[in-house]
Amino acid sequence: MVKQDNLQHNTCAGCGAALQSEKQSEPGYLPVAALERSPIICQRCFRIKHYNEAASVVIDQDQFLQLLGSIGETDSLVVHIVDLFDFEGSLISGLHRFARNNPILLVVNKIDLLPKSINYNRIRNWVQQQAKLQGLRVVDVVLCSAKRNIGFDHVITALDRNRDGRDVYIVGATNVGKSTLINRIINDYSDLDNELTTSQYPGTTLDAVYIPLDDGKFIIDTPGIVYANRLTEVVPASFLATLLPDKMIKPLVYQLNAGQSLFLGSIARFDFVEGKRQSFTLYISNALHIHRTKLERADQLYADHRGEMLGRPSLAELEEIPTWTRHSLRVKPGTQNDLFVSGLGWIQINSDLGALVELHAPKGVKVIMRDSMV
């Protein structure tokens, strides 16, 4: 632990976080060797200033709601970054209530994960519709891939069009690619010859990094919020590389009869319980092993072969994951739907014949039926 009597200040001069040297992934971390710096700034601020590198900081939901309330006291543009692959899991549906009169720009990241044949205009219209259904009013929607540098020029154009000389607050959940996108904005849109400001949100002690712009305003990088109902938050870190796709996914199409099941690795199971023969398309990480079987054999198969023949998570990893909950959903005839599992992806129900389906997933993970994305 950093000793207070060895510090000139007990908070970071860049972001205001309480300084500590025990947990590198938490706000305010700095190595003990960095105590000789003047001013003293945390490792995260140091990396932004000297290497144009923003690193993720995470806070709990109560702290995040405090943070959102403080944004409403400002005159700013709010940029909400969401993950297209986990749209409902990463969307802050009540954001407009906290932003008040501040405009919200919705930046949808990770479009590089979808096949090239997908019509981006359709995706953008779908996003606008879903955001509206969630009660989120936005001034614009921008699709991009921060990692692949796709559509980033549209992000900058949207910032210029909507900022109107104001500060920019960037908000989002964990694992949405917020830091990657901020790093690109820093490189293209910021004057980092200036020192990081010591200002903080009025009335709060939450940390944030103020990144200076050429006109004297700031991009404010806020901590990422953790939503516990995302699969990414309940699996061990050793499984994330298998769960999260890092390149374009190859959709998997299965023709199923009623009474058949699909195991999605050992992390989830899809059952086609009732309905006419039809096809289902899986938009999930291609690193997950898919196994088809009869529904009547599924329970025993899982008991005998989970973590082994059925694929990851391994038996050791499964020990850290909540047991399954069964979700039963009826698809109405004449509708086009996705069965969405937060942090995993979705199963597109290709027929409008109607069906009764069930999804088994770790307890607490969000599972919903939605209008088809693609």
Automatic annotation (TrEMBL):
Matching PROSITE patterns: G_CP
Protein name per UniProt: Ribosome biogenesis GTPase YqeH
Record-annotated CP-type G domain positions: 61-228
Alphabetical list of NCBIfam families matching this protein: GTPase_YqeH
Sections of the chain in a coiled coil: none
Taxonomic superkingdom: Bacteria
InterPro entries per record: G_CP_dom, GTP-bd, GTP-bd_ribosome_bgen_YqeH, Mito_lipid_metab_GTPase, NOA1/YqeH-like_C, P-loop_NTPase
Alphabetized Pfam families for the sequence: MMR_HSR1, YqeH-like_C
